[in-house]
C-alpha cells in the first residue's frame, strides 16, 4: 500500500513521495550500493543520490504488472553502482595509475559481474537464461526475443515472470 502511495506522489512530482521513498528504501539502496562498490566508499553518497534521482526521473517506466516496486528500485541501485564502478575505473585509467593495475581491476570487475550474473541465473535453464540476458541486459525488444525463440510474447512474459520468481526464491527474498 505504501509503495502505491509513493509511486502516486512521485508521478505527481510531490516532495512527500521522495521523502517516503527515502524513509522506506534508503537503507536497502545504500546496502546494495555498498555491496557493489566495495572499497569505493567515497562514491556511495553520490551514487545513492543518483539512484533517487533516477527513480524520480524514470517513475513513468515502472510497470507494476511486470515487477514489484522494491525489485525495480534494487535493479536501478545495482546498475547505478556498477556504472559508478566502471566510471571509477575510467578515472583511474586517465590518472597516473599503473596500466597493469587498470587491466587487473577491469578484469576483476568483469569477473565480479559475470560471477554475480552466474549466481543470479544458476537456477534457470539455458533457454530462460538466454531470454533474461537478451531482455534485461541486452535491451532487446520482446517481439524479437519471442520470434527468435519461437514463442508468443505472452509466453515470453510468463517465462520472465517465472524466472524472476525462481531467482527471488533462490535468493531468499
Percent strand equals under 5%
The top-level CATH class of the largest domain is: Mainly Alpha
What integer value in Å does the Rg equal? 18 Å
Structural class: mainly alpha
Shape, per Cα inertia axes: globular
CATH architecture of the largest domain: Orthogonal Bundle
Number of domains: 2
Number of helices: 8
| H and E order | HHHHHHHH
Assembly level: single chain
Q: What does the largest sheet look like? A: none
The averaged pLDDT comes out at 82
Chain-wise SSE layout:
Blueprint: H1 2-11, H2 15-37, H3 44-58, H4 69-94, H5 99-121, H6 126-137, H7 142-148, H8 153-170
Helix pairs in contact: 1-2, 2-3, 2-4, 3-4, 4-5, 6-8, 7-8
Question: How does this model look, in words?
Answer:
The protein is mainly alpha-helical and 173 residues long. It has 2 domains: 120 residues, Rna Polymerase Sigma Factor, Chain: A, CATH 1.10.1740; 52 residues, Arc Repressor Mutant, subunit A (Orthogonal Bundle). It is built from 8 helices and no strands. α1 crosses α2, α3 packs across α4 and α6 packs across α8. The chain starts with a helix and ends with a helix. The mean pLDDT is 82.
Amino acid at each position: 500500500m505504501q509503495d502505491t502511495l509513493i509511486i502516486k506522489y512521485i508521478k505527481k512530482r510531490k516532495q512527500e513521495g521522495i521523502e517516503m521513498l527515502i524513509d522506506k528504501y534508503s537503507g536497502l539502496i545504500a546496502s546494495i550500493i555498498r555491496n557493489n562498490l566495495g572499497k569505493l566508499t567515497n562514491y556511495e553518497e553520490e551514487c545513492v543520490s543518483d539512484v533517487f534521482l533516477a527513480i524520480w526521473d524514470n517513475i513513468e517506466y515502472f510497470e507494476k504488472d511486470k515487477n514489484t516496486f522494491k525489485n525495480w528500485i534494487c535493479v536501478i541501485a545495482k546498475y547505478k553502482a556498477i556504472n559508478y564502478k566502471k566510471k571509477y575505473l575510467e578515472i583511474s585509467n586517465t590518472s597516473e595509475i599503473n596500466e597493469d593495475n587498470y587491466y587487473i581491476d577491469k578484469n576483476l570487475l568483469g569477473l565480479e559481474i559475470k560471477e554475480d550474473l552466474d549466481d543470479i541465473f544458476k537456477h534457470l535453464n539455458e533457454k530462460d537464461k538466454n531470454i533474461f540476458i537478451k531482455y534485461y541486459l541486452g535491451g532487446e525488444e520482446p517481439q524479437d526475443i519471442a520470434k527468435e525463440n519461437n514463442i508468443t510474447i505472452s509466453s515470453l512474459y510468463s517465462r520472465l515472470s517465472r524466472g524472476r520468481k525462481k531467482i527471488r526464491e533462490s535468493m531468499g527474498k
